């Protein structure tokens, strides 16, 4: 089979970059967590690399991308990759590379999406209940939206677009995080400071680096859209970080490093659905929107007393919502053949807004109900003693650092 060597290599690289985002997220969250809960939050992230891979190969890929045209979920025809030869060309890229690398690429998205939620309920959830959550949430939330938008399902047939996961990844995970926070309640110690801001910076760098594979790779080939998505991603993140920094500096009187880093991540999340559909000037506007509105969302969360410890809802959830709305507004026919509201396409704008609202509402409601059901099987919330001791010691019997390190 004569595959295109350059495109195949690009997809292998993009897949590797998206895989790197999961350890990056672990470092980002691990640095933000209190010093007694570093390993607990990192383990919740890393374990997805193992469990989600097994799920994806067993039946996840099949449910997302096999059959079910115009429906909500696919079928089991490709369970355990049955019927997909190792050298089968991927039809979605005109057969330029084997389907196996597309399977791996999408698997890395599945790995990181549920782990985004973990930052919201840091140091409050038992590991056993989290493992059940990790499996159930993918099957009943992530897989259906992948199928409906990227697998030729209901929303794709309706005309909904999501370049790299504003709806599929960030909106669903962010609103699931909010539901989780409301279900498990507040931490006993809500003033726990980040244990290592340098670790947060390392995580941010790895996330940003990996996001080039996340967004540019979502073109699934190498062309002008690929490079546009790459540059849009960098520009939006850069402007969002500086915007967040300036707003926080004005409000609090000091420039905060964590604020700058958080702003970068907000920009990355917000440009994700639109990266391959909008011109560069729109990416700059999206960066401004991300840095300002996601900051406002976090302040709103604080005002209402939602203990979303690491601001998953404000950064990822609302970033995904704002980005999807901006896609409906700024999509340009000249870039990727899709017009938005600014070019007179009211219908497309409406579809994007409705779809992200429905996805967010479904993720919120299902997650809350799922946690309630899981709690009937095994307790979701840790005991007060376990929380006070920190999950690293009480649940895992480990410490992140030697006694003298902190």
Percent helix among the residues? 55-70%
Query: Can you tell me the CATH architecture?
Result: Orthogonal Bundle
Residue runs with pLDDT of under 50 for 5 or more positions: none
Structural class label:
mainly alpha
Task: Name some characteristics of this structure.
single chain; Ammonium transporter fold; globular
Structure report:
The protein is mainly alpha-helical. It has one domain (5-390): Orthogonal Bundle (Ammonium transporter fold). It contains 15 helices and no strands. Helix 8 crosses helix 10 and helix 9 (257-271) crosses helix 11. The longest helix is centred in the last third of the chain and has 32 residues, at 346-377. The protein is globular. The N and C termini lie far apart (56 Å). 57% of the residues are buried. The mean pLDDT is 96.
Q: How are the secondary structure elements laid out?
A:
Elements: H1 5-32, H2 38-65, H3 99-116, H4 127-150, H5 154-158, H6 166-184, H7 197-215, H8 224-252, H9 257-271, H10 280-304, H11 312-330, H12 333-336, H13 346-377, H14 384-389, H15 391-396
In short:
This protein has about 400 residues and is an all-alpha fold. Helices cover about 70% and strands about 0% of the residues. The chain is built from 15 helices and no strands.
């Amino acid at each position: 089979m004569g595959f295109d060597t350059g495109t195949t290599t690009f997809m292998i690289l993009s897949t590797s970059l998206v895989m790197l985002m999961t350890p990056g997220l672990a470092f980002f969250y691990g640095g933000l967590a209190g010093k007694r809960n570093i390993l607990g939050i990192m383990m919740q992230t890393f374990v997805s690399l193992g469990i989600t891979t097994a799920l994806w190969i067993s039946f996840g890929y099949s449910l997302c991308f096999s059959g079910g045209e115009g429906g909500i979920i696919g079928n089991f025809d490709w369970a355990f990759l049955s019927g997909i030869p190792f050298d089968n060309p991927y039809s979605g890229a005109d057969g330029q590379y084997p389907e196996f690398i597309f399977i791996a690429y999408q698997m890395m998205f599945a790995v990181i999406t549920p782990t985004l939620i973990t930052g919201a309920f840091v140091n409050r959830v038992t590991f056993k209940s989290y493992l059940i959550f990790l499996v159930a949430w993918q099957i009943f939330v992530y897989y259906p939206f992948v199928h409906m938008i990227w697998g030729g399902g209901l929303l794709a047939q309706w005309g909904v677009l999501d370049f790299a996961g504003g709806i599929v990844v960030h909106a669903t995970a962010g609103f699931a995080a909010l539901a989780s926070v409301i279900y498990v309640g507040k931490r006993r110690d809500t003033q726990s400071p980040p244990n290592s801001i340098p670790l947060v910076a390392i995580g941010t760098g790895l996330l940003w680096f990996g996001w080039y594979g996340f967004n540019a790779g979502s073109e699934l080939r190498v062309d002008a859209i690929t490079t546009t998505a790459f540059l849009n991603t960098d520009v939006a993140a850069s402007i969002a970080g500086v915007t967040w920094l300036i707003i926080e500096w004005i409000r609090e009187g000091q420039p905060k490093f964590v604020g700058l880093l958080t702003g970068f991540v907000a920009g990355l999340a917000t440009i994700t659905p639109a990266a391959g559909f909008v011109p560069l000037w729109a990416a700059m506007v999206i960066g401004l929107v991300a840095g300002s509105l996601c900051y406002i969302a976090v302040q709103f969360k604080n005002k209402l007393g939602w203990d979303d410890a690491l601001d998953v809802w404000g950064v990822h959830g609302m970033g995904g919502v704002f980005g999807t709305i901006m896609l409906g507004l700024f999509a340009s026919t000249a870039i990727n053949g899709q017009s938005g509201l600014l070019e007179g396409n009211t219908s497309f704008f409406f579809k994007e807004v409705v779809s992200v609202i429905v996805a967010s509402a479904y993720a919120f409601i299902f997650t809350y109900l799922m946690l309630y059901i899981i709690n009937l099987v095994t307790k979701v919330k840790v005991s007060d003693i376990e929380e006070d001791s920190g999950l690293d010691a009480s649940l895992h019997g480990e410490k992140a650092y030697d006694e003298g390190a902190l």
